[in-house]
Design goal:
By secondary structure, the chain is of the alpha+beta class. The protein is built from 5 helices and 9 strands, in the order ββαααβββββααββ.
Amino acid sequence: MGRRARRHRFLPDMYVFPGGRLDPRDHRMVPLTPLRPEVARVLERNATPGRARALAVAAVRETWEETGLALGAARADGVHPALDALDHIVRAITPTASPIRFHARFFVADGARLSGALSGNGELLDLDWRTIDASLALPLADITEFVLGELRAWLRAPHAPARVPLFTYRYGRACVQR
């Protein structure tokens, strides 16, 4: 996790996971390994197969860009992802009143599969590996707290869930649909 800079319009000074928007090149990137079928099935409940793969590619690419850690092979043209290492654990949609909207997917992978050295590109400050308990003591958005809780459950029994929870807002209140 890392802290977003004070200058950011969205979640300034909050601790977050690496992430960002889907890039057109994420659709064209050929991964080293495909998503496992059970992970692809869950993602494809809310996305086409091509978009599901691109979302996973984007997660690996953003992590590499923001942390220097590659899940796959880092090459001159970018990171070629090992998508078979990913599990999809949470989906989230920001409230309609939010000045910046996102429809995010949160993934998890075994850190032993990463290569590279933890070194950010400046987008995230105070970048470090943290325990879940230490992370929960930091300034976090409610979605990040929720993802940490889901991560704790996943760590007890790592698997690709048949369904992932959707964290969203209804009538201005956080809501989880399972």
